[in-house]
Amino acid sequence: MTGQDDRGDETPLEPPRASDALGAALGDAARRMGLDPAEERSTGHVVWKAMGGWRGVLESVLPSLAFVVLFTLRPDALALALGVSVGVAAVFTVVRLVQKSPPSAALGGLVAAAAAAALALWTGRGEDNFVPGFLTNGLYGTALLVSALVGWSLIGLAAGFLMGEGTAWRADRRKRRVFFWLGIAWAALFFARLAAQLPLYFAGDVTALGTLKIVMGLPLFAPMVAVTWLAVRALYGRREG
């Protein structure tokens, strides 16, 4: 693409900065989750939508719960527990596809569940069903922590895009401070999961590990969403017009 200067000469347009592209991607993801601070919604409504409503709660809890219950009752039937867990995820995926949800959203959970089950079947260890979750928590926690420490908080990039100011928030000391601590708080959540669950993984306590995964999932995610939402709304106030 080309642009024109005041003389009418065509000059190449500069490619978008990486921070702008990343902010747009994060903002779009947040908006799809219902986390647009510009919308006039109650905090409860926003948190519930971010969790995906009842279907999101069931999709998050039931596959893991089915695995934990069946493995606890039949430790010698690992394949059965894994099969039922993946089967539950597959049912939710089919429902989403029938309702014409975006394929990526519909298939993401099933692919993750199948990959985790395949690893556990390959090793023959039930606790390995949770390894992909460890990797995800480590990746998210590290990205959030590093971005906050270097002054480019991922929370700030997403909020800046949603509120229409791009990266201009970095020139505001108060916003930088709030986004720094929000990034630290989210990173702490992901690292707390690892700190609590990894000892159970190495001890091979599948029942306790699965239970703790459920307890440290949505019950901790929901209040963090609420705090983030309220903090961003306090920073920007209500959008006029």
TrEMBL record:
Task: Kindly list the residue ranges recorded as spanning the membrane.
Answer: 56-73, 79-98, 105-123, 143-166, 178-202, 214-236
Which segment of the chain is annotated as a signal peptide? none
Question: Does the keyword section mention Transmembrane?
Answer: yes
Segments carrying the region annotation (Disordered) are: 1-20
Q: Where is there biased composition of kind Basic and acidic residues?
A: 1-10
Pfam families named in the record: DUF3159
What domain of life is recorded for the organism? Bacteria
Q: Which UniProt keywords apply?
A: Membrane, Transmembrane, Transmembrane helix
**InterPro entries per the record?**
UCP010219
Q: What is this protein called?
A: DUF3159 domain-containing protein
